[in-house]
Amino acid sequence: MEKWANRDGEAGLYTDIYDGEIWKTFPSSTDNSAEQRQFFTPNTADSHLGIMINLDWFQPFDSASYSTGAIYGVICNLPREVRFKKENMLILALLPGPNEVKLHKINHYLAPIVDELLEFWSGVDLPPSEDHPEGKKIRLAVICCANDVPAARKLCGHISALAACYRCYKRANVVGRKSNFGGFEDISEWFQDRDPEEHRTNAEAWRYCKTRDERDTHVSATLVRWSEMLRLPYFNPIRHLVVDPMHCLFLGIAKWIVKRLWIDGGKLSKSDLKLMENRAKQIKLPADMGRIPYKISTGDGFSGFTADQWKSFILIYAIPLMWDLLVTSDRNILANFVKSCSLLTCRIINNDMLNQAHDRLLQVALLIEENYGQEFITPNIHLSLHITDCCEDYGPLYSFWCYSFERMNGLLGNNLIILILCLCEK
C-alpha cells in the first residue's frame, strides 16, 4: 500500500496512476471554505484509499442468452503488478439476469454501495490489531470509473453515446435515423470539458420530473439523468469517467476500420484476406506477444477476434500484412492509427507522446471523413480524442483500461456455473 509514496516522480512523465493529475490533486475535503489538503499523501499512504470501479455484463452460459452484471472495485494504492490480480479485485455487487438493467434502474443496485462509500469517505475505524494496537481509521474515495460506453452512461447518468459526448459539448449530427460525430471545422467551440456542476444540477432536476414523458424531455434537453453516484460529494461525473481504450481503440475503431470500411466497403477481398492469413502464419513472435488466431479469412473476416487479438493485430501485424493491399488514402489512415496506438500503449509516456498520439487520432478522424464521408465518424472515433486527457489524469493506458475486468468476467462466469450446479445437487 505504501510503495507508491516512495516513488520519484518527474514532471510530464507518466509511469502509473500516481503520476496523473487526479491522484496528485484529489482533495481531502469538499468544503471549499476549509484549507484545501490533498487526499493522497505519504502520511496517509495506507489509510486513504482510492478505488476504480467497473460495471459490466457477461454471458455465463454458452447455451442460453442470459446476461449477468457485476460491479468491480480495484484498490489503486496497490502496485500495478498486483493491483489487477483476481485475488485483489473487489466484487461490489452481482446483478441478476436474464437481461441487462435498463438506464436509471441501475440506481437500485448502486444505492447500497454508495451508502457504504459515503461511510468510508467520512472514515471507518478498524478494530485494534497487532500492527495497530489503537486501531486505524480508513478513508476511501472512488477516483475513477472505467467501463465500456453503455455501462459508463448508466453508471454516471449520461445520455446515449449516439446522441452526444459525455466529456465535451459535441452533439451528434442526425441524418434520417442515423447519427454521426463528423464535422471538425468548429472543434474549438465544442472540444471543452463539460461542467460537472451543471451536470449535477440537471441530474437533480431529473429527479423531480413526475412522468416518464417529462423525464424523456428533460434528458433530451440536458443529456443527463440522475445517478446514485452523484451522492458522493467529491465525484466528478465527467472527469472521473474515463474513455476505456480497450473498447474504444481496439474493439471499436480498429474493428470498424478493417471490417466496416475495408471489408464491407470492398477494399479488401476474400482473396486478400486469405493472403493476409498466409502472411500472418509466416510471422514468428515470442510466446508472450500474443499471436492472433488464424481466422482472418474465416466467415466475413476476422471471425471472433477478441480485444486483445485486435490489439496485437494493430500493433504488430496490420502494416506488414495489408500495407500493399491498400490505396494511399487508406494507408494514411492505417499509419496514423497504428502510430497513435503504439505511442499510447507504451508503459511509460510523456506529454510529447500524448500530444503526438492525439494529433494522429485527430488525423485518422479527418482522413476517414475526407475519404468516406461524415456519416462514418462513429462515437468511438470521437471519444478517442479524449483518451490523451484521460492519460494526463490517470497515467498510461495500463493504469485504467478494462482488460483485467474482462478477465474477471470470464472467471466469475465459470464460477457462477459451478455454484449453480452445486445448488442444484442440493
Structure description:
The protein is of the alpha+beta class. Helix content is 43%, strand content 12%. The chain has 15 helices and nine strands. The chain has a five-stranded mixed β-sheet. Strand 7 and strand 8 form a beta hairpin. Helix 8 packs across helix 10. The protein is globular.
Distinctive features:
12% strand; alpha+beta; five-stranded mixed β-sheet; 426 residues; 15 helices
Layout of secondary structure:
Blueprint: E1 13-14, H1 21-25, E2 48-58, E3 68-75, H2 80-83, E4 89-95, H3 107-122, E5 124-126, E6 136-145, H4 149-156, E7 173-175, E8 178-180, H5 187-190, H6 196-207, H7 212-222, H8 245-263, H9 270-282, H10 307-322, H11 328-344, E9 349-350, H12 351-372, H13 379-383, H14 387-394, H15 403-425
Parallel strand pairs: 2-6
Antiparallel strand pairs: 1-9, 2-3, 3-4, 5-6, 7-8
User: Low-confidence stretches at least 5 residues in length (pLDDT < 50)?
Assistant: none
Beta-strand percent range: 5-15%
Order of helices and strands: EHEEHEHEEHEEHHHHHHHEHHHH
Radius of gyration (CA) equals 23 Å
Distance, first to last CA: 41 Å
Structural class: alpha+beta
**Percentage of residues in helical conformation:** 40-55%
The counted number of beta strands is 9
Morphology call: globular
Instruction: Sketch the major β-sheet.
Output: 5 strands, mixed
- Residue-averaged pLDDT: 91
Biggest β-sheet: strands ordered side by side in the sheet: 4-3-2-6-5
DSSP helical segment count: 15
